[in-house]
Amino acid sequence: MKTLTAAAALASVGGWAAAQEGGSGVEVLHWWTSGGEAAALNVLKEDLSGQSIGWNDMPVAGGGGEAAMTALRARVTAGNPPTAVQMLGFDIQDWAAEGALGNLNEVAAAEGWDAVVPAALQQFSKYEGNWIAAPVNVHSTNWVWANKAVLDELGIAQPTTWDELVAAMEAVEAAGKVALAHGGQAWQDATIFDGVVLSTGGPEFYKAAFIDLDPEALGSETMVQAFDRMSQLREFVDDNFSGRDWNLASAMVANGEAAFQIMGDWAKGEFKNAGLTPGEDILCFRMPGTEGAVTFNSDQFAMFNVTDETAVTNQAAMASAIMSPEFQVAFNTVKGSVPARTDVADTEFDACGKQGMADLAAAAEAGTLMGSMAHGHANRAAVKNAIYDVVTAHFNGEYDSQTAAEELVNAVEAAM
Ligand code: GAL
């Protein structure tokens, strides 16, 4: 009874109250299973539970979400889609094109999402003018994380250029520590490649190669140089890097076994979860040479077509909860990301979060805010996976840099 009253009260002030007490309000498919991710997910679960929206958990482990997307396809094929699904960029658009997604226009209009969600995100949250997903955050991939105590101990200053980064890694390695904490998984290799390509060629080049898929850029001398830089980085990973999960690589930086990790700011969620202070214990800086530009990805909850009216109401209630400014602060300060709304203050965010928010706004203004290739915001999954294959094959020594650039042209052409 108590919850019903609360729901009625919410509805009476114009909120999007859940349609039922507790129980199976929403079934949520996601890949947030690491310590930091789970802590952030808990913020969402608790927020919804406070609004009497029940939570039916469908976690599919695997950084970057590839396994989750495979599980999703199986569920939809079986005619049993989950109500809400964590999803990235072009995947949202692909499902919308298949007619699989529901419509959030009513709640979006009532709450004025059009005015507060940046255009770069709306291009993924909307399909043919209709809201189909609610963005929960903005992450970016061109970050480097460093254990400050390790750098201090070795007298290494925060690198400001590519050469300084390489010199710093050499010094760490010479001191017997792991220079670059990395997990050999295709999506992690590709995440590093986002920043390396941006650093090597600049924003125009990144755009030409990954967003416009211009064969000249893909096969260019600049791309060969970017692959050469990947080979340089390859020298700094430890012998056990193959297959390692990204959060275990973060843990190596957190506990001082390694100095650096090149990873999206979900790594910050791990550092916070380990009790470290970003900006103090853990330094955050943009991949040298990428300052002023941001390669972003936004986690959104896409709502699948469900026929049950209660389920539809719960979807709107969940979307409304996600879009509330208070929730965006509570969630993103834990997740490592920044808000998906432009009207949220940075007060509650740590130093790296404040920088993330400022960088995002500046890049949007300068036209250097670009979708992450590695995280499905530059092109569709088929193209993304084709790029993954080449980057990983090169990282593992199957191609030299010249061959890799040529293969990149071929692989992208075949996948388009
Ligand atoms: C990204 C996602 C992040 C984080 C990361 C590692 O694709 O946007 O939220 O979870 O994968 O799993």
UniProtKB/TrEMBL annotation:
InterPro entries per the record? Bact_solute-bd_prot1 (IPR050490), SBP (IPR006059)
> Which Gene Ontology cellular-component terms appear in the entry?
periplasmic space
Which stretch is the leader sequence? none
Q: What is its main location?
A: periplasm
Highest rank taxon of the organism: Bacteria
- Show the coiled coil region(s): none
**Gene3D superfamilies given for it?**
Periplasmic binding protein-like II (3.40.190.10)
Q: Which UniProt keywords apply?
A: Signal, Transport
List, alphabetically, the Pfam families matched. Answer: SBP_bac_1
List localization entries: Periplasm
- Function comment: Part of a binding-protein-dependent transport system for a sugar.
User: Which family does the record claim for this protein?
Assistant: Belongs to the bacterial solute-binding protein 1 family.
Protein's name according to its UniProt entry: Probable sugar-binding periplasmic protein
